[in-house]
Design brief:
The chain is of the alpha+beta class and about 280 residues long. It has two domains: about 1-120, Aminotransferase class 4, branched-chain amino acid transferase, N-terminal domain (D-amino Acid Aminotransferase, Chain A, domain 1, 2-Layer Sandwich); about 125-285, D-amino Acid Aminotransferase, subunit A, domain 2 (D-amino Acid Aminotransferase, Chain A, domain 2, Alpha-Beta Barrel), CATH 3.20.10.10. About 30% of the residues lie in helices and about 30% in strands. Helix 6 packs across helix 8 (about 265-285). The structure holds pyridoxal-5'-phosphate. Pyridoxal-5'-phosphate binds near residues 181, 184 and 243. Belongs to the class-IV pyridoxal-phosphate-dependent aminotransferase family.
Length: about 280
């Protein structure tokens, strides 16, 4: 596989980053994951904009403009012959000479920019889309700026392991009695013809897929309520689902052992997934 590191396209075995990189030492970096369907990028501009926002919230300069970033994404898709898959992008504050809590001067320390691809044939036809996934709830113990997409992913990773140990697929995190989001996705329930999902704030990541799905839902005359909901309300809902760049819209069929809609994926989630995939493929670049 060919990867991109700081201006160079290299075989993955030759790509190197300093041990003093602040992402390695302090998780001082941000990332994006963009999906590729049919060799094209899904919602590239949404991811590029969120990257700039994450960087600016952390006082990091943007390493390059949108067009150059797009070119690198496309070149990696071409070099690695990606039909369906993901592109991972990471920008860190770079590698000053020493470990120090104080940010290095951006004039003297260059950011580290890394991109690589993951081929995932049939990404849009996963078994999870047909069968749905099972969720457990866990306490949300992450830091308070979840709107910044940092590489500080230890707690979400632990949450995923807690789910696996419990025989489930993923975890929804709960704070002050209400669901924030999934370990790597946004969370939704459906009550009658209304979609309920937590409102945007610093408590959750502002999902690029979330923005697109809510727009398509409203265009299809579905009702959307952006507000907190509890696990109890979710267990009594007609349907539930998650969204992310890699899962698109994926139905949830069980929450803490309680089956939803008889344990099979609901019609609204299925319809939204279809609309999302159709529209996103049409708009892909
Ligand atoms: N919430 C969290 C915590 C995430 O890590 C992710 C994606 O990685 C999402 C939500 C979904 O965001 P997006 O739709 O932009 O992939």
């Amino acid at each position: 596989r060919t990867v991109y590191v700081n201006g160079e396209y290299l075989p993955e075995t030759e790509a190197k980053v300093s041990i003093f990189d602040r992402a390695f030492l302090m998780a001082d970096g941000v990332y994006e994951v963009t999906s590729v369907l049919g060799g094209k990028l899904i919602d590239f501009d949404g991811h590029a904009k969120r990257l700039d926002r994450s960087l600016s919230e952390l006082d990091m300069p943007s390493p390059m403009g949108r067009d150059e970033l797009l070119e690198i994404h496309r070149e990696l898709v071409r070099l690695n012959e990606i039909e369906d898959g993901l592109i991972y992008l990471q920008v860190t504050r770079g590698a000053p000479g020493d470990r120090d809590f104080v940010f290095p001067d951006p004039e003297t320390t260059e950011p580290t920019v890394v991109l690589f691809t993951q081929s995932k044939p049939g990404l849009a036809e996963s078994p999870a889309a047909k069968e749905g996934i099972r969720i457990i709830s866990i306490e949300d113990q992450r830091w308070g700026r979840r709107d910044i997409k940092t590489v500080q992913l230890l707690y979400p990773s632990m949450g995923k392991m807690m789910a696996k140990k419990a025989g489930a697929d993923d975890a929804w995190m709960v704070e002050d009695g209400a669901v924030t989001e999934g370990t790597s996705n946004n969370a939704y329930i459906v009550k009658g013809d209304t979609i309920v999902t937590r409102q945007l704030s610093t408590d959750i990541l502002h999902g690029i897929t979330r923005a697109a799905v809510l727009r398509f839902a409203r265009e299809a005359q579905m009702k959307v309520e952006e507000r907190p909901f509890t696990i109890e309300e979710a267990q009594g809902a007609d349907e539930a689902f998650i969204t992310s760049a890699s899962a698109f819209v994926t139905p949830v069929v069980e929450i803490d052992g309680v089956a939803l809609g008889g344990g099979t994926p609901g019609p609204l989630a299925a319809r939204l997934r279809e609309i999302y995939l159709d529209e996103s493929r049409k708009a892909a670049i």
